[in-house]
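Bit of a strange request maybe. I'm writing a small parser for structure token strings and I need a real example to test against, not something I typed by hand. Could someone generate the tokens for this chain?
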Amino acid sequence: MARGLTLADCAKGVGTTRQVWHAWETGKRRPHSRYMPRVREFTDGAIGADAFYPEIKSAA
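Reply from user aminoacidic:
Good idea to test on real output. This should exercise your parser:
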């Protein structure tokens, strides 16, 4: 995060663990929908669902 926060700070801010936050950041896992409002609020809207669930492009 640009605000100089640690993984532990971010995880605590949204109510999860450092390991889970790291998995979200690295794309190994996606946050459950119940965490998205917390993530948006904690990051002042800088991170939303689009960061974790990019638009799916259909093969046309």
